[in-house]
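Researcher: Let's do a round of design. I'm pasting the structure tokens now; please hold your answer until I've finished.
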């Protein structure tokens, strides 16, 4: 199998991505799409293997049933609510059941062509290196929901081509979120420098684990030495830094084996291994069985 032919899906079109989830919704505006997510009467498990998008994803969810939410390295059991910000061009995967409700917004940078400041500097929660996810309680969801509803209501009633009113309200919502996120981070400001470094490291691993496998590569992104990063991670967590990269790879490998019918060799190449044998050795070392045995056990 030619490794070069195995690539992570990259979605440049919002409708193409919606079709892949799958979602029944579609947009007539190639730059912007909003939807209300409602609980299904007969919820089913949804798993989306690693992919990239060329557009922004911004969502507020509340859990109306039993759910395990997996966004990259973050696993939240039965959350009351959560808020997620995802920038373009990051590796992403997710799994959850359909008991979630809330608001989902997709948009491209061109949606705000009238906006002069640098978008990422103005709204730093859209980080170019990693996904930002905030766990919330029910009261906070109720506080935020009306602001999202304003955007969705404007989207529903504005022109199907431009959605100019909705785009203006989205911009206002982003400024509201800027203040909200700043306040949340102020609450967490008492974390030690080592704890903050560990959190940033884990966020980076989540979005770069396929193409970055060494502590040095992450240390370079964090502007610290590999030794300082390794010592900080060890001091806070008791684990070595490399173990987090392996754990992230193993989590994604398990999801691909359990929830898809992708050939094991193709999974190996998708996850950046040089060949299926290398992947098999890695998987057996950490899981105690071969990828095929793990898949067969999950089918029982």
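Researcher: That's everything. Go ahead.
Model: Designed sequence:
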């Amino acid at each position: 199998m030619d490794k070069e032919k195995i690539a992570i899906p990259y979605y440049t079109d919002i409708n193409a991505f919606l079709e892949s989830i799958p979602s029944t919704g579609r947009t007539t505006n190639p730059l912007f799409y909003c939807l209300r997510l409602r609980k299904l009467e007969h919820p089913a498990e949804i798993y989306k293997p690693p992919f990239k998008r060329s557009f922004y994803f911004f969502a507020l969810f509340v859990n109306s049933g039993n759910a395990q939410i997996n966004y990259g390295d973050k696993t939240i059991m039965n959350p009351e609510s959560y808020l997620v910000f995802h920038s373009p061009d990051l590796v992403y995967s997710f799994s959850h059941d359909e008991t979630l409700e809330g608001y989902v917004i997709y948009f491209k940078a061109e949606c705000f062509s009238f906006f002069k400041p640098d978008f990422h500097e103005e709204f730093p929660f859209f980080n170019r290196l990693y996904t930002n996810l905030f766990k919330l309680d029910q009261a906070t969801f109720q506080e935020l929901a009306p602001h999202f509803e304003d955007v969705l209501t404007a989207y529903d009633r504005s022109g199907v081509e431009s959605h100019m009113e909705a785009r203006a309200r989205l911009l206002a919502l982003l400024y509201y979120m800027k203040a909200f996120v700043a306040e949340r981070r102020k609450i967490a400001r008492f974390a030690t420098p080592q704890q903050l470094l560990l959190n940033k490291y884990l966020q980076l691993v989540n979005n770069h684990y396929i193409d970055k496998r060494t502590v040095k590569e992450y240390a370079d992104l964090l502007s610290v030495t590999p030794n300082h990063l390794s010592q900080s991670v060890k001091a806070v967590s008791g684990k070595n830094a490399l173990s987090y990269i392996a754990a992230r790879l193993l989590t994604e490998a398990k999801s691909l084996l359990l929830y898809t019918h992708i050939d094991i060799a193709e999974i190996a190449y998708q996850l950046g291994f040089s060949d299926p044998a290398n992947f098999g050795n890695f998987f057996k070392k950490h899981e105690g069985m071969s990828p095929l045995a793990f898949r067969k056990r999950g089918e029982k």
